[in-house]
Amino acid sequence: MATSASSKLSKAVKQQYMDLPQGDQVQAMYIWIDGTGEGLRCKTRTLDSEPKTLEDLPEWNFDGSSTYQSEGSNSDMYLIPQAMFRDPFRKDPNKLVLCEVLKYNRKPAETNLRQMCKKIMGMVQNQHPWFGMEQEYTLLGTDSHPFGWPSNGFPGPQGPYYCGVGADKAYGRDVVEAHYRACLYAGVKICGTNAEVIVINLKQISFGPCEGIDMGDHLWIARFLLHRVCEDFGIVASFDPKPIPGNWNGAGCHTNFSTKEMREEGGLKYIEESIERLAKRHQYHIRAYDPKGGLDNARRLTGHHETSNINEFSAGVANRGASIRIPRSVGQEMKGYFEDRRPSANCDPYAVTEALVRTCLLNEESEEPVKYK
């Protein structure tokens, strides 16, 4: 299992410097999504005092030609702070700052899906849309070999690893525990974690409930924290929806969705109405649910390994092989939420949550999203 050389550097030596006082100055790490729609970038600036609100954070810029976001002849891009979290690596009073990216003309970069998502969420705020996203990921060595797998050959078949305990079943628990605590410190709305079905190294972390735009903000920061934690351990977190070809489960980002009406008495009626709308717009959602317009998910949504078929829409109570699953408790209580099992592990949560609101609450039916003034 190959690990990075940086993981072997002395963390005790580093800690000597991290313990030095920093006076009144604060380190603010600006974080943004790059031109792939999947990768995260970051850089740090010094502030003269601790920022209390977003208004205390200055705009910044970066070289977009190095992040697949601009040409070298016109490369400056703007970083606009949108959400602020505590920094679990440098600790208080230092901050993590999630930013939107604007082009030279102040228009959103192609992979800045947050701005439109926020607009759509604002149109339905009186319905209080709640989201919970179940982020799956796979641990790999720096050589891309699954962490915990034998150097040659394959481990035992799937089965014992889901919520597994023991050295032969649970690999990478240190990463999971460290990431969990980092999320809690940062203020990310993490609600649980477990090892998943795939042999040894597929993990799941659940986030939410978050209302509106907060879901995307919290999930992107959680992904950033996971990458940073994995740096310290010298391994890699992959969000590829099918990291290991063959007879293994893929990695998704199942999305739970509800509105105020769905959560109240008789809410099952509104859940069923939303599922009917989703059935009529299946291909639109497939295109929105991974950054390559469905090509990544085509490797995962085969109709096997607890997935639905990418070409078919289905729904059912407690059915993990359906596009939409209604939890059994929801069917019994006649209210609650539903789970969309189609989003891929590498989805953009802004795109997923926006698509659900457009179809379920704004009643859009066309194959293209409606352009609102």
Describe the structure.
By secondary structure, this protein is an alpha+beta fold. The chain folds into two domains: 24-111, Ubiquitin-like (UB roll) (Roll); 121-362, 2-Layer Sandwich (Creatine Kinase, Chain A, domain 2). The protein has ten helices and 13 strands. The strands form two sheets. Strands 6, 7, 8, 9, 10, 11, 12 and 13 form an eight-stranded mixed beta sheet that branches. Helix 2 (114-123) runs parallel beside helix 10 (349-360) and helix 3 crosses helix 4 (214-233). The radius of gyration is 21 Å and the shape is globular. The model has no long low-confidence stretch (mean pLDDT 91).
Task: List key phrases describing it.
single chain; 373 residues; alpha+beta; Creatine Kinase, Chain A, domain 2; 10 helices; 23% strand; Gln_synth_gly_rich_site; Gln_synth_cat_dom; mitochondrion
